[in-house]
UniProtKB/TrEMBL annotation:
Main location: other
Recorded superkingdom: Bacteria
CDD domains reported in the protein's UniProt record: PBP2_TRAP_Siap (cd13672)
Signal peptide location: 1-21
One Pfam short name: DctP
GO cellular component: outer membrane-bounded periplasmic space
Name under which the protein is recorded: Tripartite ATP-independent transporter solute receptor, DctP family
Alphabetized UniProt keyword annotations: Receptor, Signal, Transport
Family indicated by similarity: Belongs to the bacterial solute-binding protein 7 family.
GO biological process, one term: transmembrane transport
Keyword Transport: yes
Length: 324
């Protein structure tokens, strides 16, 4: 009798096993960020909501610290369906959809709310749709990453103060373009070497979002921070279109709800950090400069004309005016 019960139990497990496996699905999320940063906190909140709303049917396995490769490699994995989610800025999509570069051109985007209006516009939706149809990247949400500001040893209170400054910028066309338009001498330096370059006066200043400026301790070797607000950046939560189509409508809604919740956490942490860091820098003796930015934007007009000639007359002003 005992032998019969054992056989029946094993048979039951064989029948129930596949069904159980089908009822639980683990989705993968690859990212460059590290545990503790705002994006990671947002993703972990999304993971919690995903599991709660699906009653444990959906789980999220997170791979931080570029464990799965560079952002380009992870995006390729999302295209293939080997990875379910990753992050990449909207303005950084220009290698695949060239007109997206407008969003990473200085002073086109005023703030994160403005960027959301651009994404929601016919133009923004057209870019996102091309990403989905051509590369299999479905945009789930857009999270605030930060606004790039400028540090230096001499104060920058007007456009002319940039003249002749050796300014470290990333080796990206829009950033180099901005530095030149300001009258600075753009000087690409490897990110890991920026602190030393500032300390030894190889460069006179650099630009980054406030949390990066703090994490890299740049204000130890700089005395001024200027709110140039030249570039507002987000992180798109990108999902494999293949994965999306494989989910039920109910689970698609759960995914959207989960990442909206994650975005609220991320956005609050980033905005709170920005406000707190300015006070921290001032308390530590740094001077915070808040110049009138209209002349800075006016210096970008030749660049805007180039974008108009390439992507459609008036497109820059059309997108800029969405802030009003």
């Amino acid at each position: 009798m005992k032998h019969v019960l054992t056989c029946l139990a094993v048979a039951g497990m064989l029948v129930a096993g596949p069904a159980l496996a089908q009822d639980t699905r683990t989705l993968s999320f690859g990212m460059q960020g590290t545990p503790g940063d705002p994006q990671y906190q947002g993703v972990m909140e999304a993971a919690k909501v995903l599991e709660e709303e699906s009653n444990g049917r959906l789980k999220l396995e997170v791979f931080p610290n570029s464990q799965l490769g560079t952002f380009t490699e992870m995006m390729e994995q999302v295209t293939l369906g080997d990875l379910d989610f990753t992050l990449n800025p909207f303005g950084g999509m220009d290698p695949w959809v060239s007109r997206a570069v407008i969003a990473s051109t200085a002073y086109v985007v005023k703030d994160f709310d403005h960027l959301q209006k651009i994404l929601a516009s016919d133009w923004g939706q057209g870019v996102l749709e091309e990403m989905r149809t051509e590369n299999g990247w479905r945009t789930v949400d857009s999270w605030y990453f930060g606004t790039r500001e400028t540090t230096s040893n001499k104060p920058i209170t007007k456009l002319e103060d940039f003249k002749g400054m050796k300014l470290r910028v990333p080796n990206s066309a829009p950033q180099l373009q901005w530095a030149k338009a300001m009258g600075a001498s753009p000087t690409p330096v490897a990110f890991a070497e920026v602190y030393l370059a500032l300390q030894t006066n190889q460069v006179d200043g650099q630009e980054n979002p406030l949390p990066i400026i703090d994490a890299m301790k740049f204000m130890e070797v700089q005395s001024n921070i200027t709110l140039t607000n030249h570039l507002v950046q987000d992180q798109l939560v990108l999902m494999s279109e293949e994965t999306w189509k494989d989910l039920s409508e109910e689970d698609q809604k759960i995914v959207m709800d989960a990442f909206k919740a994650g975005g609220l956490v991320n956005n609050k942490v980033v905005k709170d950090n920005e406000a707190a860091l300015l006070s921290k820098f001032e308390d530590n003796g740094a001077k915070v400069n808040r110049p009138e930015l209209a002349p800075f934007r006016a210096a970008m007009e030749p660049s805007y004309k180039e974008l108009d000639s390439k992507f459609g007359e008036g497109i820059v002003e059309k997108l800029s005016s969405l802030a009003d």
